[in-house]
Amino acid sequence: MRQSKLFTKTAKETPKDEVSINAQLLIRAGFIDKLMAGVYTYLPLGLRSLEKIKKIVREEMNQLGGQEILMPALTPKEIWEVTGRWDKIDVAFKLDGDGGKQYSLGSTHEEVVTPLVKKFVKSYKDLPVAVYQIQDKFRNEPRAKSGLLRGREFSMKDLYSFHKDEEDFSDFYEKSKQAYLNIFEKCGLNAVIAEADGGVFTDKYSHEFQVFTENGEDIIFSCETCGLHRNSEIVKEEKCPQCGGGMVKNKAIEVGNIFPLETRFSDAFGFSYLDKDGKEQPVLMGCYGIGPSRVMGSIVEVNHDEKGIIWPESVAPYSVHLVSLCKESADIKKADELYETLTKQGVEVLYDDREGATAGQKFADSDLVGLPKRVVISPKTLAEDSVEIKERSSDKVEIIKIKELNSRLF
Amino acid sequence: MRQSKLFTKTAKETPKDEVSINAQLLIRAGFIDKLMAGVYTYLPLGLRSLEKIKKIVREEMNQLGGQEILMPALTPKEIWEVTGRWDKIDVAFKLDGDGGKQYSLGSTHEEVVTPLVKKFVKSYKDLPVAVYQIQDKFRNEPRAKSGLLRGREFSMKDLYSFHKDEEDFSDFYEKSKQAYLNIFEKCGLNAVIAEADGGVFTDKYSHEFQVFTENGEDIIFSCETCGLHRNSEIVKEEKCPQCGGGMVKNKAIEVGNIFPLETRFSDAFGFSYLDKDGKEQPVLMGCYGIGPSRVMGSIVEVNHDEKGIIWPESVAPYSVHLVSLCKESADIKKADELYETLTKQGVEVLYDDREGATAGQKFADSDLVGLPKRVVISPKTLAEDSVEIKERSSDKVEIIKIKELNSRLF
């Protein structure tokens, strides 16, 4: 992408109405734009990162056996009355349709997915089933001050699993933990699994995936001896319930969670199956959530410095920032050629070909945008058929021949 | 995909609450599920087709110079008051937030995109700009009886263009017509461009892309001599205004539309630019819509027979339906191998490996689902190292050697 064609621009000033690091940097770097509290537009650079995160999530969900669907955001009151949750979900947006109809904007989708899967599952032979979607969810959050970490409209991957017995459920639940850890690792996030309250649906714990950072809203107690992590909500005393060791507390961002739902929703919708003996049995369910937009915000919270964002390669909008300091048309032609050659080879390049900007502005913008590798091409480097290469996460600058560039970018 | 693992099933019965062909067939074939009038879930097969349509749209929009963004569905009342449209859009869903705040669910996005692009465009050097998104829109349609043709929540691609003068606008507008025709052609739809009312924004015509079919909601007058098409809304007499020839009228589905917006929105938001002489000038705008979900419904309306859907290759969820009639484990192994070989070669195969279904059920399902090619493998064909191959759109059945299959599938 030629930066001269990109319609967004970076901003020097920190937006006054944002207190979170992720929103400040993502807005300044031209990744997102704020429409109102907790509601953002994804600009071209931001959408590319968001889509890369979704792709990683999708791959792991498919690997886990999940089948992708897409449920509506607009849901009728009737389905929420079946489970008694119409008045129970504080953050649900409600709206009126024609003829006295009432709708809720999907804040979660158990009430849609359970009767849906019920239509197709009759026998034990039809189980297990795992379906997921990646879709925008809506929650009327009272405090939406954390940028992409707590949105009123946000991207969510929600998977729901359906099982014939506890053993099958547990097996899938454990596998989902590994899939989640894979996702966060691929996104460059170091997440741990923390036990948390199971809510009203189960006596078991639910499990949260937490990334430690000073800007986190959650408090996690971690055992220094055995490595157990627990959300402070369920910590009764500051000793490890597993080994008796001492626990330390740290702030963290919850980037995902998984819940055993038992038969809470299948019972409500009368969703049972026939076992081998033709006997009706309750279907066991689990739900598994990750917010790709929250993951994006978390990546920025833990990967930045005073100059800007430091994107992990896997989720960077482009992997190379080709910065041209060329002014003469012969040099510009060489820079253009390098851009086109790299792009044809499949390297994702953002090409700073802007004529008006100074070298200082271009370097500052490059640090702010935070692509993994910066390649500078200038009259000076071209005199030696070279470019300057630098990783965003390092201070080391190298001069290498243009023909050697390939081996450094793949 | 192994059909035995697909959680959806086909249905013999036509859903009683659907009058449109597209909804009836898509529901019976397991592509979509109805949550309420005008609101559907996309099941695994349906989502694959929808994504293929979106991909075609995206390619053409990028080719046209469009930059993809993603705007929110939740929009604040204030931006609609700027243009005076808060109370003007009948189909807008409105909802209440905290502290007396009011929101509208995006039914169109001029009020979001205009102030957004204004933030980045100051000079004639920053123009033209074209941005688009593919996103779910919400409209409280009073009559949502046409399946995917008229949804209350539906997929929409909306592009907005910004120009420094009439010439630049016209140039882009004409190019967009070709991009749209390319999209419909790639989707297997034979669309024509019809002149239509420009609405309150312009004295010019807007342009609709219309697909002729008996089930269309629009009436189009077409000149048999010069090929001019006009929406009946603006036809004053039944003679061609271009050549005086006779016009015939036919029903059609509007699958896309493009509008000159003139300065209607840039004026409202005070969006001007500085020209070469440093003088403020108004920005000219255009908007360009295609509904991928409506396109999907339209494809089914014009491509089906009494047995089911007939998908064009480009938008079929899979290109081959491999139907196995094998019962013995040695034969099943060969069928499995063929499935795996084809899949590894990049052929998109839906593999009917179901044990319980009869040959008759499998053939009926295959016709209903409507993938472009059906390949049958059975003890009879295996005895001659062959398979039976048939195109969904033809009655011709051929027996070919398995080793020759490749040349027929690529």
Which features would summarize this protein structure in a list?
2 domains; nucleotide-binding (chains A, B); elongated; nine-stranded mixed sheet; 410 residues; Rossmann fold; alpha+beta; ATP-binding (chains A, B); proline-tRNA ligase activity (chains A, B); five-stranded mixed sheet; 23 strands; homodimer
> What's the quaternary structure here?
homodimer
- Architecture (CATH level 2) name of the largest domain in chain A: 2-Layer Sandwich
Portion in beta strands of chain A: 25-35%
The DSSP helix count of chain A reads: 11
Structural class assignment of chain A? alpha+beta
Shape of chain A: elongated
What does the main sheet of chain A amount to?
A: 9 strands, mixed
The helicity of chain A comes to: 25-40%
Number of strands of chain A: 23
Work out the radius of gyration of chain A: 25 Å
Residue stretches of chain A low in confidence (pLDDT < 50, at least 5 long) are none
- Total domains of chain A: 2
Mean pLDDT of chain A: 96
CATH C-level class of the largest domain in chain A is: Alpha Beta
* Alpha-carbon distance between the two ends of chain A: 19 Å
How would you characterize this protein structure?
The structure is a homodimer of 410-residue chains. The model of chain A has no long low-confidence stretch (mean pLDDT 96). In chain A, the strands form six sheets. In chain A, strands 3, 7, 8, 9, 10, 11, 12, 13 and 16 form a nine-stranded mixed sheet that branches. With 410 residues, chain A is of the alpha+beta class. Chain A folds into two domains: 21-305, Bira Bifunctional Protein, Domain 2 (BirA Bifunctional Protein, domain 2, 2-Layer Sandwich), CATH 3.30.930; 318-409, 3-Layer(aba) Sandwich (Rossmann fold), CATH 3.40.50. Chain A has helices at 21-28, 44-63, 77-82, 110-118, 166-186, 264-268, 292-302, 329-344, 359-369, 379-382, 405-409; strands at residues 32-36, 39-42, 67-68, 74-76, 94-96, 102-105, 129-138, 153-163, 191-196, 206-212, 218-223, 229-231, 247-262, 272-274, 280-282, 284-290, 304-305, 308-309, 320-324, 349-352, 373-377, 386-391, 397-401. Chain A contains eleven helices and 23 strands. In chain A, helix 1 crosses helix 7, helix 2 runs antiparallel to helix 5 and helix 2 packs across helix 7. In chain A, a hairpin with a 2-residue loop joins strand 1 and strand 2. Chains A and B meet through strand 1, strand 2, helix 2, strand 3 and strand 4 of A and strand 1, strand 2, helix 2, strand 3 and strand 4 of B. Chains A, B: It is an enzyme of class 6 (ligase). Chains A, B: One of its GO terms (molecular function) is proline-tRNA ligase activity. Chains A, B: Residues 38-312 form the Aminoacyl-transfer RNA synthetases class-II family profile domain. Chains A, B: It comes from Candidatus Magasanikbacteria bacterium RIFOXYB1_FULL_40_15.
